[in-house]
Design goal:
7 helices, Jelly Rolls, 285 residues, binds 2-oxoglutaric acid, metal-binding, binds fe (ii) ion, AlkB-like_sf, alpha+beta, 13 strands, single chain, four-stranded antiparallel β-sheet, Oxoglu/Fe-dep_dioxygenase_dom
């Protein structure tokens, strides 16, 4: 498929992704709901919580992620990791080495374990989990994000979305929407990739003028990117569909990502884990 056709396809699919991201029940919950329909009907008068099915992931070897920068994070808070974008875009943080190599490999092993349930879309593959059906390893990640002070205990992430991108795949500019609190943390596994913020145009500006680029980041494996507030609400974020990254001078986190202008980095498979907090807890059906 040529690049323009791929973009058209991605645009068509973006609606489906948004729908998948905002649906109130996971695939597993749907299966459980369908299988126990008559039981549910009987239980209509009996407001017992719906039974959940344990997800049989292999044991996760870590109780908390212990990457080298976490000590700095615990001592100084997120401020030390703020991305200073020339556009003035605030509320984006880049944390290199958020997990160790061993933790990274363990998370990839969990991602590809037999218990994982993938949803295929044309432009990439997804796994989507939400409490109370979060696999133990993603629960550990949620705890680590609270321990690191990124999420407050009251807004512990209750939703995990895994995206797998093959070389040449990406995600078009989008916002994550009001379904979640306006704070996202995304850990990268496997390939490095560019992550870009662009201006969110008003309806009457679309097609009239080009959206401004607000910040380009290079996300290295084992890093965590966090964004919130205006970067969440007023900017679109995307991962360009590339076969190779060419690092330019406007990469806002070039030092923290330990890259140099002109570096060419071929894309391999990348898995991202996006952790968010749904505003309203899913109500048992
Ligand atoms: O893969 C990424 O880094 C971003 C994923 C993303 O934006 C999303 O799932 O909403
Ligand atoms: Fe997103």
């Amino acid at each position: 498929m040529d690049f323009m056709a791929m973009l058209r396809e991605e645009r068509r699919k973006a609606g489906l992704v948004a729908a998948a991201g905002s649906s109130k029940v996971s695939d597993r919950a749907v299966e459980v709901t369908a299988a126990s329909k008559s039981k549910e009907e009987r239980a209509a008068a009996d407001p017992k919580p719906t039974e959940t099915v344990p997800i049989d992931f292999p044991p996760f070897k870590h109780t908390v992620l212990a990457g080298a920068t976490n000590a700095v994070l615990a001592r100084d808070g997120l401020e030390a990791f703020r991305v200073h974008a020339a556009s003035g875009l605030r509320d984006v943080w880049y944390i290199p080495n958020f997990c160790t190599v061993e933790e990274h490999d363990d998370m990839l092993e969990q991602t590809y374990s037999k218990a994982a349930s993938w949803k295929d879309i044309r432009s990439r593959r997804l796994q989507c989990y939400r409490e109370p059906e979060m696999p133990p390893w993603l629960d550990t990640l949620a705890s680590s994000l609270v321990q690191a002070g990124i999420f407050s205990p009251a807004q512990r992430p209750n939703h995990a979305l895994l995206n797998e991108y093959e070389p040449g795949q990406g995600i078009l500019g989008h916002t994550d929407g009001p379904v979640y609190h306006s704070l996202v943390a995304c850990i990268s596994l496997g390939s490095p990739a560019t992550f870009r913020f662009t201006e969110r145009l008003l309806t009457d500006e679309i097609g009239v003028r080009e959206a401004r680029e607000l910040a380009t980041l290079l996300l290295q494996p084992r890093s965590l990117v966090v964004f919130a507030a205006d970067a969440y609400r007023e900017a679109l974020h995307s991962v360009p569909a590339l076969l190779e990254e060419v690092v330019s001078a406007d990469v806002a986190n070039i030092e923290a990502a330990q890259a140099s202008v002109g570096d060419r980095i071929p894309r391999t498979t990348r898995v991202s884990i996006t952790m968010r907090t749904e505003v309203v807890a899913p109500s048992p059906k």
